[in-house]
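re: ur question from earlier - yeah i can do the single chain one, its not a big deal. heres the input i used so u can compare w yours
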Amino acid sequence: LCYNHENKSPEAAAVEKMIDAAFEKSTEVYKGYFDDAQNTDNAWVEVSVTNVHVEGTVAETATKGGIDVEQVTWVMLNKRAEINLNDAWLMKLACNKLQ
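and the output i got, formated as tokens:
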């Protein structure tokens, strides 16, 4: 998660504190090779997936890419979530780690 650390408002400080607390309880789900259509013999996609359970204000905080991350988003898991098959595999790994 990339957050604007230059914003020093009280609201930003409160959100940053909640994000830090959420990540303290995070669990690494998977790190490594990822089956993707862009993969070739000489180049492939690797991912690092972390399960972070958040509630309230943090879940409503806007996300944006950063130096090491091109895209990041909050995803609410339910039966209507639009997730491609490869991402679904990662979500299943995350759910199995919760059990």
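The first strand starts at residue 27 and ends at 34. not sure if urs matches, ping me
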